[in-house]
Structure formats: structure tokens, C-alpha cells
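Form 7-S
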Amino acid sequence: MDGQPSDVMRTWFQRVWTEREEHAIYELFPPEGEAHGLGPAPIVGPGAFHQFWVQMHTAFDSLDVRVLDAIDQRDRCYVRCEATGIYRGALVTFEGGCMAEIHAGQIRRVWSYLDFVKMLTEMSSIPPNALELALSGVRFA
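Output:
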């Protein structure tokens, strides 16, 4: 894939997340690919990423991710995104961003910073003041 690194990320979000093209994971994320920030440990390889993808698409009836801003520098980019999905009939919207290293049209490494607190709050999985509670010492088990 020619073009800027952010073009790969735009394609990734459109095909993998919005259009739900499972096979695109294997096209755009190589065996040595690393995804950081989506759990306690990096996700390595398309098979492991596919498991995360299944969990997200099982939870959300639909998910649309669009790139709001992008900055490219050589083989890296930063993209700021907005995700909108339907969870149990309710609209859930959250933003985030990621820095990605692209090689030969594939995502070699990506570091995601998504507002999962907002996502979980809108899913009613945690209370609206969960961050405040956690900072005051409350533990969620």
C-alpha cells in the first residue's frame, strides 16, 4: 500500500472495525505485529488480535471508527479517532488515538490510547464517577 502511514490506519479502521472484514486483520497486521494499550500485555500477531476483535464485535452490534486527525512522519503516524457503537441498544461514543509504525503497508507496532473509562461508563459497566472513586481509594473487583 503506497501513501502515508496514516492511510494504512484509515484503511485499518474502515475495513477491520467499521466494515468488520476479519480477513483484513491478516492483511494489515503481520505475524510480528504488536498492539499495545488494549490490555495488560501487548497483543502479538494477527491471530491474537483477531481474538480481541471478536470480543469487541461480540459486545457491540455495530462499531464505526473514523479518523479525526492524522500526523505522518516517515514510517510513523499518529491518528486521533472517534468510535461510535451500539451496545445493548444504546449508543456508545468514545475517542482516542494511536501512534503506529508502518512497514510495507502493514502495522508493525501500534500504541493505542483510548478513553475506555468513557466507553465503560456509557456501557453502564462502571459508575460515571469511577475515576474519581478509584483515585479516592475505592476498588472495583
